[in-house]
Amino acid sequence: MELRLLGPVTVLREGRVVGVRSRKALELLVVLLASPGFRASHDEIMHYLWPQEPLSPNRIRQTFHQLRKSVPEICSESNERGFCGVHVKSEEVDYLRFRGLLLTADSTRDPSVRLDSLRNATGEWRGILFDGMQGVAFDRRRHELMGELREATTACVQTELECAQLRAALDRVDSALVHWPTSEALLELKVRALRTLGREVEIPPLLAEWERECGRSTAHLLLAGTTGEYDQGAAVSLRAMTPPRPRQLPLGSISLVGRRRQRDRMTEVLLGRSPERSRLVALSGLPGVGKSALAVEVAVALDQYFADGILHVDLGGVAPEGLLSHEHVIARLLNDLGVRPATPTPDGMLSAYRTALADRSVLLILDNARDEAHVRRLLPPAGASATIVAGRRHMDGLEIREHAELIPLEPLNRADAAALLGKRLGEDRMRTAAPFVPDIVEHCSGLPLALGIMAARIKRRPWALADIVRELRVESTRLRSLDLGSEDLSVRLSLDASRRQLSVPAGRLLERLAIHPGPTISWAALRAIEPEDGPHVSNAVDELLGMSLALEPSIERYALHDLVRVYAEALTCEWAEAERIRVVKRVLHYLLHQAWACDRRLEPGRRLPIGQPGTLVVMDPADATAAMRWFEAEYSTLSAAVGLAQRHGLDRYTWLLSMTLVTFQWRSDRHLDALAGLHRALPAATRESGPADVAMVRRMLAGTHRALGNVEAAVRELNGAVRMSDDDGDTLGAALGRHTLGVLLQESGAPGESLDHFGAALPAFEELQDVLGQAAVLSGIGSARYDLGQYEEAAECCLRALSLLTDTGDVNGQAHAHFSLGRIRMAREDPEAAVVELVRARVLYRSLTYGSREARTLVWLAKALKAAGRTAESAEAMGQAAAVLRRAGERDLDTALDRLARLP
Hints:
- With 904 residues, this protein is of the alpha/beta class.
- The chain is 62% helix and 6% strand.
- A hairpin with a 2-residue loop joins strand 2 and strand 3 (16-17).
- The protein starts with a strand and ends with a helix.
């Protein structure tokens, strides 16, 4: 019995082919013969014969029965439960004979015996492996076995060369390269065979063709001589031949603008004038930010200091075809230096390279490096040589281990960007483009590559200048306008190359950052975008920062460069709409709940139908000051988030996010922003929610109009809100509307009319047991009674309000009650008591960072202090009021202070 796997699967009995009853039975035989001990589990058999189908022991038994009918002598009547097996001898299976011959070849030191074993081993192969057998598992096994054949063939060619059977080796390697055309090992063997046969003229075209097909360097194969031709002593220097001094600089471009500080620092380090640093500089930054140009410009300036020349290597760190290996680079550098290593091994080449640089003064530029490991073996030893490394990644490891100077390059500022554009365009074209220069500079975002591309397009088609700039302005066409077709002349393609280097989590995070609406994003928001990726977020952020694709403008706040954001957003266009909406909702969900947590700290009585955050982790601010700080940091993001929600038709987030912002906007004097947001919120709430919520939006609109001095609009909104609440049977909404209407009328000089509305609101709040509502109405009544000169009644109402607020977190309500009591004490000619109340009010307003109310309280405090004869303290209080207004952005302090002083 003979069983052949290495070719078309065949069973021979006494030299005759045995027909196996079915294709599946033949496949089962292959699985069993290729398994250890000729035995395989049912799971393994299913994986090969019926992939992705559920386990079916009956089907397996039926197939084994067909195999037994065909070759009963190797199949037992029964199998172990869950397994199948056959009984054969190893010498009956060609694959096992092949493996045995390889073991024999490996175990002998006799080249002729090894050669016979390898030739016999490769002779076991008879054609297409597993011919006709389909499926991923068979393909994988076929690939593994072909790898074994390739290694055996390579070993056979090597042994034929060793045994001086050169023509046989050349014939075999030619045949092997047909099957494995990208095998560098086989290519090297063919080079050795040709060189030994004296056919060296054929080597350069062979290598050139292989490089074109495979896209990889073969420089090390061009080192002088082969193993047999090398002297076994020390490396041989070719300096006696006086090779030309290398000056391998790319064609010079227009000189840079800016970067003066970086150039000066590079000069200090490279010339050894910085004792704490080695003579090594590592530049990093966005693709197209000018790393290579800066390296070349500094090298030109320092040429005279490096007697043995300048070497430049493009390491291809982000090239799709992969990195240049260290051996390739070292081989090329050895040739450039005129040095032949004693042996062509990687270690021998590296030793010769380091020895050659030890007594030379060379400036080495390693451009487009991927990371520290990519360049570390190429760095010259300590001495007179220096190195500039340029890459997109921050190479912290070089600073830690090699004491390098790390210099990250940022995009150019506007002035330098305009200057670079002028150099690229020339004076005449710059004058023509002058009206468009601000737009070009803004939308190229300080990236020299982008500015160079725009200059090239304008020079090519000056008559289309307006159209070129128009295309640049629009986000959807911006990257297209910054693309001249090749990676080094395309912002999009250069960013593609960076993205290819990212891990899957980092690539995913990059795209999701483009969805986030803000100019910056906090660490907490990053984790909220993809909570299931939580363990990977930190590494992904570090990766984006390390690749210069993300920035950290402040501690734990991150941002994308404008063009990176446009690029990443374009990637999200390939998403399914459902996925985009999912991510948008997750971003908005986090922002809404975090804003709501802070808003409740500012205004504990606020009611919004937001619900619980679920599994989302939300920061609970310690106090109103912390809440205000959070709003201040996230304000641009939150404002943009409202627009994002509106663009995607997410009405719930549109109106609720707008509402959570209002308290902060009022307290930071952003009333016009509040008005715009509430005008967005009103139609969204009308579509999404019920009358009670719409009435609430209208009440907030009224409050905003009130702050802006538009009493008529405020009254209109309040009356509408009250009618809507009454029609809906919303007792709380109607009470809140009447309270606000009472406040507005009281402030407008109608305290008597305001008492009617306060009087209608108070019983409703009492019925609802709403303590904060009762306190707010009582404070309002106190203010109205004050205006009517009824000071006793006013003080009683304010004290009742304070007693209700004592155990609540309504700091604003407490502050207002103390302020009202202070005014009442002043009216009753008790300035010292007024001072006590106003100081309390000021402290509370200050804790809320409520600038306008604090300033008003300080003005009243100054009045009370003056009335108490404490003139110096009064002046100090007025100065503090001016300082508060100044911090709030008030320009005309005298007018503002006078206005506050005149308030009743």
